[in-house]
Backbone:
């Protein structure tokens, strides 16, 4: 990673001195940042996830990113993995270089607004210089990603119209959509674990909504498949605008605009260690892509563990069962939180209740494996802590957040 701009040692010292302040006030600053930016540039609401704003997920994620950048301002190479993860999402959302000055202006305004007199001219000027360097890094990485997506065989830039060729209900809450390009031309391949962004134009909504959905099949077909959970209202959290739209309003023959596949949560097949896939609920979508890929690599020893409420909520179960039965290298285990009588009669699950470390140790031969997991945040926290307690090295633990990156530490 290179940048044409450099920071003085004085600027670096000032930025690093603000790290404790960011740790304390970072979320307040980023909440104010979004509020001010959207007031002045409401057109950016076409890009950002409104629900994540309301629930505070996006401000928290941005605060964590700003904190990391400040802490490593003298060695930005250290945060390149985070930069690339965010850049994948930006590329899939169609974030452009011209958006960065807008973000920088309002971030500085928010810092000044929240910190008041503590945000001296010296601090604001230092942050302006630092933001310029950080923005250049993101712009350069994202430019490379845009070029790669466009230049791939079957690739494209920005959004491309696709037809819903098939819509299949997979469970009480999960429905699959098979998407084929409207122009009938080739589509680019992708790595198992990647996602696409879908632009939803919903009647009555002032702004369009963009959501990212993991590809739930293997690459190399003439369609992309996404499998979406309908997010119903619960407690004080309203129903998911896009997921209910996709389930209730989108039908076969409709046209949706999507961006080319993106994402850095991808299956690595080079390590010789066994591979363990663990999913909860609709977190199975990237895992199914990985599983079907691994089923074609008989030399790989694979364990797949999936957790669902019960068989009625377990999507794509027949497809997965077929993949497993036709493979010699996959061990498959199910944990049902509240199994139905039908589940008990059919004996389709191996664990009742939640996955825990004691049970994991009975189905996974040992901890010397590459572990991939995805699911609801509470589920991911438990799995992450269980793997750490088991002594699995951090570099062998891989996970994906649905939405802004969160914190798995309890």
Residues:
């Amino acid at each position: 990673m290179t940048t044409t701009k450099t920071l003085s040692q004085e600027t670096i010292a000032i930025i690093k001195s603000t790290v404790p302040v960011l740790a304390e006030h970072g979320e307040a600053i980023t909440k104010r940042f979004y509020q001010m930016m959207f007031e002045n540039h409401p057109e950016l609401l076409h890009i950002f996830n409104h629900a994540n704003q309301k629930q505070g997920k996006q401000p928290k994620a941005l605060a964590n990113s700003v904190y990391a950048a400040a802490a490593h301002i003298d060695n930005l190479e250290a945060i390149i993995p985070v930069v690339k993860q965010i850049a994948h999402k930006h590329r899939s959302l169609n974030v452009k270089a011209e958006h960065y000055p807008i973000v920088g202006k309002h971030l500085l305004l928010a810092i000044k607004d929240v910190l008041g007199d503590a945000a001296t001219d010296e601090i604001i000027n230092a942050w302006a210089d630092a933001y310029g360097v950080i923005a250049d890094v993101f712009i350069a990485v994202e430019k490379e990603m845009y070029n790669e997506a466009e230049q791939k065989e079957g690739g494209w830039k920005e959004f491309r119209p696709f037809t819903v060729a098939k819509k299949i209900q997979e469970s009480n809450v999960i429905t699959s959509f098979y998407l084929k390009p409207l122009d009938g031309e080739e589509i680019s391949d992708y790595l198992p674990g990647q996602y696409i962004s879908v632009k939803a134009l919903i009647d009555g909504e002032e702004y369009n909504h963009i959501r990212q959905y993991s590809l739930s099949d293997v690459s190399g077909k003439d369609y992309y498949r996404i499998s979406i959970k309908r997010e119903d209202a619960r407690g004080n959290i309203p129903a998911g605008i896009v997921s209910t739209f996709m389930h209730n309003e989108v039908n076969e023959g409709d046209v949706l605009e999507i961006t080319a596949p993106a994402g850095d949560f991808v299956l690595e097949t080079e390590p010789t260690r066994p591979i363990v896939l663990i999913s909860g609920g609709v977190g199975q979508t990237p895992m199914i892509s990985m599983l079907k890929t691994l089923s074609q690599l008989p030399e790989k020893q694979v364990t797949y563990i999936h957790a669902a409420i019960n068989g009625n909520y377990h999507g794509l179960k027949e497809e997965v069962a077929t993949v497993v039965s036709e493979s010699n290298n996959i061990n498959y285990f199910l944990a049902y939180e509240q199994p139905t009588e039908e589940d008990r009669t059919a004996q389709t699950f191996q664990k009742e209740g939640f996955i825990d470390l004691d049970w994991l140790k009975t189905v996974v031969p040992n901890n010397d494996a590459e572990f991939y997991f995805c699911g609801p945040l509470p589920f991911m926290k438990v799995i992450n802590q269980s793997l750490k307690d088991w002594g699995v090295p951090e570099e062998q633990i891989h996970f994906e957040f649905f939405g802004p990156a969160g914190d798995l530490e309890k």
